[in-house]
Amino acid sequence: MITHGSRGSSVLGILALLAMTLGGPAPGSAQTDDSLVVHGPDDASLSLPVGRLRGYSTVPHEALLQLGWAVEVDPSGLRAQLGRGGPLVEFSLDSPLFRWDDQLFQMVSEPFSGGGSIQIPLQFVADFLPILAGEAYSFSPDERALEVLDASLWPGNRDETRRLEATRGGIAIQSGFADGSDPDREEARDLQERVVVIDPGHGGSDPGATGSGGRREKDIALAIGRYLEAELRGDEDIEVYMTRDRDSWIDLWERGPRATEWKGSHSGVFISIHANSSPSSAIRGFETYFLSEARTEHERRVEAIENAPLLRQADSNDGDVEVLDLTFIQRDLEKFNHGHWSNLLAEGIQAEIEDVHPGPNRGVKQAGFAVLTNVLMPAVLVEVGFISNRAEERILSQGEFQREIAVALAQGVRGFLERYPPGQGSTVQDEGLRKE
Fold first, then answer.
1. Which among 83, 95, 297, 333 has the fewest CB atoms less than 10 Å away?
2. Nearest C-alpha neighbor of 141 from the set 12, 7, 279, 34
3. What is the pLDDT of residues 175-220, one digit of tens each?
């Protein structure tokens, strides 16, 4: 039976956690920064992946399975139970608080949905587990390794193997087998699976543009993003991610790296969804942008509007925020050749939206959007209409129209993926470009 362990090891756990989080292995350790060694009975060992999607160290929720926990995921968070009749842990997404049986504890950082899993702060594994379940786990700060003391928890020693599947915000999450593997999922990703990352613009404290009728850009973008995610979810060869699936703030500079990590070595596209605005309430219609230097006054104005959150962030941090560097953008486009493919993606999306949108097709445009600068795949920013136009604001807020736009976006993506070279990331993309 597993009981709460002694809290005397908390200092060692915290020191080990700090060593991991701040980077660099502990003295005498050959362990890299992206995994955590776990020792088991009879000299057995395994590694848990460690990520840094939000700038702090996390492990995916599948890691708990490898440590002997049964895991359930729901839209609000995660529940896990250790062994048979052991402690029950409950996490809420985007909250540093967690419940261990009847006790409430607070971590430095919070769990979140990312990389196809629920990401749990490494602090829970390296610090709290040895403290709260000391008879089951111990942590060695010198080796930066976790040890499973209860042999019944080790993969292969359990009396059952469970596979759990759940859905969080429409994103399918597979928790894997008890040994941490999931052959079906890995095989599926090897069969030329494509990745589509949906980025609903703005969110949280940044509402984006607001129409005269009170509709907010962030709400319209999120609604269309959710419809698009649901539409693409039925495609067996497409894996879908959303940079945000709720009204939350995601830094502009974080969206691209997250998308690139989700894409991995597979082919992928990035769709950022926005609603336009103009000083003239008479202007309406839709347009799609790819990343390049703005050429016209209109393109520069839209670029400034969509990059405004970055400037506000700089003001609130005394200017301590990286500014947009178009020289870097041009170098990036030349290196990865994504500009050509992004242009083709934008053209396909414009053609599909034209069939359902009552406003004029304003064409494919280009600008230096911060959200696209570090997305290492074909990427576009879609302005689905002008929220500053009263009639178009009303249309954009209608659920039926939002679904129609989402279907059009999905059709544009599908058509593009038929032309886009599958499977091997930038190398294949570049070869495909040279053949054009």
1. 297
2. 12
3. 333 333 344 444 444 446 899 999 999 999 999 999 999 999 999 9
Residues 6+ apart with CB under 8 A from 192: 237, 266, 267, 422, 423
Q: Which residues contact residue 54 at a Cβ distance below 8 angstroms, ignoring those fewer than 6 apart?
A: 109, 112, 114, 119, 254
Contact status, residue 364 vs residue 291, Cβ threshold 8 Å: no
Angle between helices 426-435 and 338-354 (to 10 degrees): 80
CA distance 399 to 43: 58
pLDDT tops 60 at residue 350: yes
Alpha-carbon distance of 231 to 221, in angstroms, equals 15
CB atoms within 10 A of CB 406: 24
Model confidence band, residue 283 (pLDDT cutoffs 50, 70, 90):
very high
CA distance 3 to 136: 8
HSE-up (13 A, CA, CB side) for residue 112: 22
Widest CA span in the chain: 74
Domains recognised in the chain with CATH numbers = 7-183 (no CATH), 191-435 (3.40.630.40)
Burial of 331 (0-12, 13-18, 19+ CB in 10 A): exposed
